[in-house]
Amino acid sequence: MVEQQKHEPEIPYLTRIQVLVAMGATATILWIVAKLWLYFGNVSLFRWHWYEKDLLLGLALGLIITALSGLAYRLCYPYRQSADYYLQLVLSPLALPDLIWLGLLPGLSEELLFRGVMLPALGLDNVAVIVSSLCFGVLHLSGSQQWPYVIWATIIGLILGYSAIISGNLLVPIVAHITTNWISSYLWKMSQLSKMKN
Hints:
One of its GO terms (molecular function) is endopeptidase activity. Keywords: Hydrolase, Membrane, Metalloprotease, Protease, Transmembrane, Transmembrane helix. InterPro entries: Rce1/LyrA-like_dom. This is CPBP family intramembrane metalloprotease. Helix 2 crosses helix 7 (171-197) and helix 5 packs antiparallel against helix 6 (147-167). This protein has one domain (50-190). The protein is an all-alpha fold. The chain has helices at residues 16-40, 52-75, 77-91, 99-122, 126-139, 147-167, 171-197. It has seven helices and no strands. The two termini are 23 Å apart.
């Protein structure tokens, strides 16, 4: 039987306020980078429209990504270990209502930069999707042993990038990202609360 190792975080454990401030600061920095890139880079923001079908497509994609993530979590031990490390660091200090911000802040700011600005700036082609997805993946690196989580985030970046290009609407990856964050974080948080009661 393989003994599970408990990795101590390379980043010290954070308080609820520190996590919320870090989320807000990261979202603000990404928003500023996106705005500066739009202003100085002569780039147009990827178009987005409030279409009901694209909203539903984003919701469906978010559910699919959440299901795939759950499958990867169950079947791939290195990913499960890496995801638990990352989620423990970010989610443990948060209260359930804080998960609203965990969905909205990254979902809006990361999609604005990586799909909204970077994709058009790099040419709206396969190379643009790959490069923006790699950058998105690296953003989720929280320690030197977190590569399985970075690889997974990169794969999600590819899915979100192609969803933007295929649909022609930035709303799709935004809604998918927010939905995935909300559902995944809620399920993980509830599983941890359940373990604590047992």
